[in-house]
Design brief:
The protein has helices spanning about 1-45, 60-70, 80-95, 130-150, 155-185, 190-195, 210, 215-225, 240, 250-275, 285-290, 295-320, 330-360, and strands at about 105-110, 115-120, 200, 205. By secondary structure, it is mainly alpha-helical. Strands 1-2 form a two-stranded antiparallel sheet. A two-stranded antiparallel sheet has the order 3-4. The relative contact order is 0.14.
Length: about 350
């Protein structure tokens, strides 16, 4: 009976963690829209959202309510099943990537007189990086289904752009990550974070950003393309393709597409923070851990990771309102002729350094 109760407690822990991550993702996505409008307003010397609540903080609720109560239209000439499946698939894949991210260190709690270690990670699989890449690559199918099933030439052109853009930049992103994996010797995100413990060890920085700065730069540029954000927002190029692949969508189907884009930005920021900037690690964390209770230390670590994530989200927003949009041929040339050769050169240099310094 004790084992049964512990098993049920384990299941409840994971369910609660999944719900917290999903609700947090939706919350971050909702207020990322508010934050982006505020950032744009500051950079353009405007006020931004200011009517719904103090400083416009209730604006995301007003926008969500408007989308929820708007009339839902399905075009007569569309492929109805795929038209409905497109935004749902895009949202599901956006949420699935959060399952393998370690949001904080394990902490111990006592249940029925038995100490139990609680993990702040839904699933610690030994191929976590491959899982993220596999799920992210499925997200483009949601865009393709939405663009093709709408039976609209502008939506279809936008979906084709999104697919070719994704193919161009996923290859460079994968090659840049291989260099990091050559250094860490693992595909597990938990182990990658563990190797970046603290900030300084054995006379050098522990964070992978300092070990692989070029890989980080390539990965960051590819993240902009994967997220379809400026200056790589060609699938939603209003001046050429109206609204892009979600032109025929309305109500909550449109809301799913828009929310999923911001959830993807949140998850991409979390992956960047985890792989290159130590995840929940921070300087002098051992001293802090020794001075505070275990539960409080875990909260501090989660807060540190969230601060890094918010920093990347703000960076994505600043870039959107700073750089002009690339032409489509420039976009593909940068991916195929610029980033991929650069990533291959970084691989060769990384392999040479490892062979010369660590395999003697």
């Amino acid at each position: 009976m004790l084992l049964l109760s512990i098993d049920w407690i384990f299941i409840i822990e994971k369910v609660v963690l999944i719900l917290v991550i999903i609700l947090s993702s939706f919350g971050v996505a909702a207020y990322a829209t508010w934050g982006e409008r505020k950032v744009a307003a500051i950079m353009q010397d405007r006020i931004g959202p200011a009517r719904a609540g103090i400083f416009g903080l209730l604006q995301p609720l007003a926008d969500g309510g408007k989308l929820f109560f708007k009339e839902e239209i399905v075009p007569d000439r569309s492929t109805r099943t795929l038209f409905i499946l497109g935004p749902a698939l895009f949202m599901v894949t956006a949420l699935m990537t959060s399952a393998v991210i370690p949001w904080g260190p394990d902490f111990t709690m006592t249940i029925g007189g038995t100490e139990r270690s609680v993990s702040l990670q839904v699933a610690d699989i030994n191929i976590g990086i491959l899982y993220i890449f596999g799920v992210v690559s499925l997200g483009v199918y949601g865009i393709m289904l939405g663009g093709w099933s709408s039976n609209n030439k502008f939506s279809l052109l936008s979906a084709i752009r999104a697919a070719s853009q994704s193919i161009s930049y996923e290859l460079a992103m994968g090659l840049s990550l291989i260099a990091v994996l050559m250094v860490t010797q693992t595909l597990s995100l938990r182990e990658i974070v563990g190797q970046q413990h603290g900030f300084w060890s054995d006379g050098y920085f522990t964070w992978n950003f300092f070990k692989q700065p070029l890989a980080f730069l390539i990965f960051l540029v590819c993240s902009f393309a994967e997220l379809n954000r400026a200056p790589f927002d060609m699938p939603e190029c209003e001046s050429e393709l109206n609204m892009g692949y979600h032109q025929e969508y309305s109500s909550m189907k449109l809301g799913l597409y828009l929310f999923a884009e911001y959830i993807n930005m949140f998850i991409s920021s979390a992956v960047l923070s985890t792989v290159f900037f130590g995840g929940y690690n921070f300087p002098w964390m051992d001293q802090v851990q020794a001075a505070v209770p275990g539960g409080l230390f875990s909260i501090i670590c989660v807060t540190v990771l969230m601060i890094k994530v918010v920093g990347f989200i703000l960076f994505f927003m600043f870039i959107r309102w700073t750089l002009p949009r690339f032409r489509y041929d420039q976009l593909l040339n940068l991916g195929w002729k610029g980033l991929i050769p650069l990533a291959l050169i970084n691989l060769v240099i990384t392999g040479g350094v490892i062979l010369f310094f660590f395999n003697k």
